[in-house]
Design goal:
- This protein is α+β, with helices and mostly antiparallel strands and 602 residues long.
- It has six domains: 3-109, DNA Primase, Chain A (Alpha-Beta Complex); 112-245, DNA primase DNAg catalytic core, N-terminal domain; 254-368, Dna Topoisomerase Vi A Subunit, Chain: A, domain 2 (3-Layer(aba) Sandwich); 376-438, Pheromone ER-1; 463-542; 546-599.
- Helices cover 53% and strands 11% of the residues.
- The strands form five sheets. The chain has a five-stranded antiparallel β-sheet.
- A hairpin with a 5-residue loop joins strand 11 (209-215) and strand 12.
- Helix 5 packs across helix 9 (184-190) and helix 16 packs across helix 18 (427-435).
- The chain is globular, with a radius of gyration of 32 Å.
- The termini are far apart.
Length: 602
Amino acid sequence: MAENIGDTMGAYYDQNLLSDITQRINILDVVADTVKLTRKGNRYWGLCPFHAEKTPSFSVTPEKNMFYCFGCHTGGNIFTYVMKRDGLDFPEAVQVLADRAGIQLKKGPLRKEADRFKRVVEVNKAAAAWYQGVLKGDPGAAKARQYLRERKLDEQTLERFQIGYAPNQWNQISDFLFARGFDQEWVKESGLIKRNKSGDSYYDLFRDRVIFPIFNYQGNIVGFGGRTLEDAVPKYLNTPETEVYLKRHHLYGLYQAREAIRKGNQAILVEGYMDCLKLHQHGIDCAVASLGTALTSEQAQLLRRYAENVTVLYDGDEAGQREALKAVQLLVEQGFNVEVLTLPEGLDPDDYLDKHGKEEFLQYIQNNRVSYIEFKVKRSIAAENILDLQGKIRIVNAVKDDINNLQSSILRDNYIKMLSRLLKIEENLILKEIEGNTGPGQPYRKNKIPANRDTIQYGNYSIEEKILASMLNDRGIAEIIAENIGIECFSSRHYNRLAAICFEMGGDSGDSPWEWQQAVEDEELQALLARINTRWDKGFRVNHAELWYFIRDVQRQRYRARWRNLHQRLEHLRTDGGFHTVLRLILDLDTFLHQTREGGIK
């Protein structure tokens, strides 16, 4: 049973509550839900869930419960991570992590918002179980069972995805849910019932439809899709968008597929429920569907948490191929390695598997999938007159940005050769057309790595970062710095603020990392602390030579700045100043030079 502790939800949280949450949950487990991590030393590395990248620059330090990305400079603690990952505010992140830790928060105004999600999910869970029970045993569901047999879905697949049936009645699900004690407001929030025109009662949204529960990536049922068994319009009907369910944020089958996707670093993207179900049934567990609509950027970002390789497998008809082209472009923009598989005209994945079986299907994928650039070229050729010069130019223009963005010169050369062969144009002319896209005098290869990307090689931190990391880890080093040059001795105001917090707290940060994270409330400071934390191993100390080089360097810079100031004043007084003022300045200069000699600064 969840333990009831903590303060009310609001602007303030008892620090013991937050500390207790972090002691019960390690950030590694939370991050590993959505990011494939590889251990290197005492840290874990993976692809950042917050920006598109192909080289892992996202690090997690479990013993400190902190993360940092060297690509986008995002960092912080376990609460920061959940906030950024799920788009939550701080109270919502506390609620999510408290639930995971088995801690029941006391009631408060903001808790009601978290309860709203939980109660609607409870309604959906009960409804899904009821729909599933109707499909299995209700005599009125015989037609639905026959339909699913004809679609060759087995019992294991139906059970795994909790497929159900909504009877052709007006008040079946509403009566069931109200009888179970669910509040009318929560049932209405779920979208499963609708108010009638007179406004005095409700009726069921789904009637005589096969029901497909839609899970979020955490396994909560957030919505439903229903397929008609007659000629009703629409053929597929979804629950309306609610605070719990935003269609563009979810992928059908992701909850069931995420482990296979993460393990293989590969996903297969299909259009509809049946395609996804049939692939899973045949052991192709990395399949997800875009819920029958055009792929959205939110869905692509969600998928990017699990893999960097995607095969787009949409229907082979013209409509399916148009949607595939849109999906390809969006996936490439999100940093995926994208391949496309086009099935024979008129077939979808469901049909192909039924006709040819798993082994032939996998062989077809292996032999016929093409890169997204080749797919775009083929689509462009199909739409253009390849004998027309302007048509050839449009074909090249359709893919030149994609070729520019390739980091491999071998791949770029390969596609230039392919275009030359297909369009019967000399390679140098293709190259000139592509180069022309970048402007005069510029190379056509674009660097996809941000200019401000940090290095992730240990030892390549600046001397200031090494000093700051040492100060955080060793009170003695902080005191040497304070005594010789003062705590606020860094070129960055954020470094100075973190150093000041270090000195104010007293003691070593390594002894109480949570207290340090709590003391640093500013988001930019949290990211900096997380970055410094990647150098902040227990026992790390900057060596004696580096420490005193830094101190002397700061002193030199300060003396030079003071000398420049005195020199400027002297130049000014030579024309405008009186005798006594000039004399006083000369005495200041003498004192300055004496201090310089005494300090050994040259």
